[in-house]
Design a protein that fits this description.
There is one protein chain. By secondary structure, this protein is of the alpha+beta class. It folds into two domains: about 40 residues, Ubiquitin-associated (UBA) domain (Helicase, Ruva Protein, domain 3, Orthogonal Bundle); about 110 residues, Elongation factor Ts, dimerisation domain (Tetrahydropterin Synthase, Chain A). About 45% of the residues lie in helices and about 20% in strands. It contains eight helices and five strands; from the N terminus they run H-H-H-H-E-E-H-H-H-E-E-H-E. Strand 3 and strand 4 form a beta hairpin. Helix 1 crosses helix 3. The longest helix is centred in the middle third of the chain and has 17 residues.
């Protein structure tokens, strides 16, 4: 199978690995992106995977406020990272905006399903921010969106907390 530049680009965005590493993995996997990602993970060439185990403190980030058109719904999101350099990055700010829009639009109850301190009924996609399909691209979840940004920025990123406000709702 012919490995196209678009295939390499998509794998690079998901993995954060270099172009040659992505192409080699795709060649070995006969063009299958999932198999190529597994190959990169086994070779420890995935930046996001390395970052998740970096152990560095995530005490930098931003609080992003989003007010929906009409000013009846708003949200606040605290998005954290490891350095102030990344916190000031345009991609990081866009990620915070996208997540704040997601919170305002989809009204998740928890960040992740592992937060079992509150019993909430519903499907994972309804209650967990990380399991929800991204409103701008329903083929990827918020968790995948964050991992993709982490790979591109070279640091671990997480949503520490969020709040949603709606006029007339309790």
């Amino acid at each position: 199978m012919e490995i196209t530049a678009q295939m390499v680009k998509e794998l690079r965005e998901l993995s954060g690995a270099g172009p040659k590493q992505c192409k080699d993995a795709l060649v070995e996997a006969d063009g299958d992106a999932k198999k190529a990602m597994t190959i990169l993970e086994e070779r420890k060439q995935v930046k996001g995977e390395k970052m998740l185990t970096s152990g560095r403190a995530m005490n930098q980030g931003i609080v992003y406020a989003y007010i929906h058109n009409g000013s009846r719904i708003g949200s606040l999101v605290e998005l954290t990272c490891e350095t102030d350099f990344v916190a000031r990055n345009e991609l990081f700010t866009q990620l915070a905006k996208d997540i704040a829009m997601q919170v305002a639009s989809m009204n998740p109850k928890l960040i992740n399903l592992s937060q079992d301190e509150v019993a909430v009924e519903g499907s994972p996609e309804e209650i967990s921010l990380m399991h929800q399909p991204f409103i701008k691209d329903n083929k990827k979840t918020i968790e995948a969106l964050i991992k993709e940004a982490a790979a591109r920025l070279g640091e671990n990123i997480s949503v520490r907390r969020f709040a949603r406000f709606e006029i007339g709702a309790e």
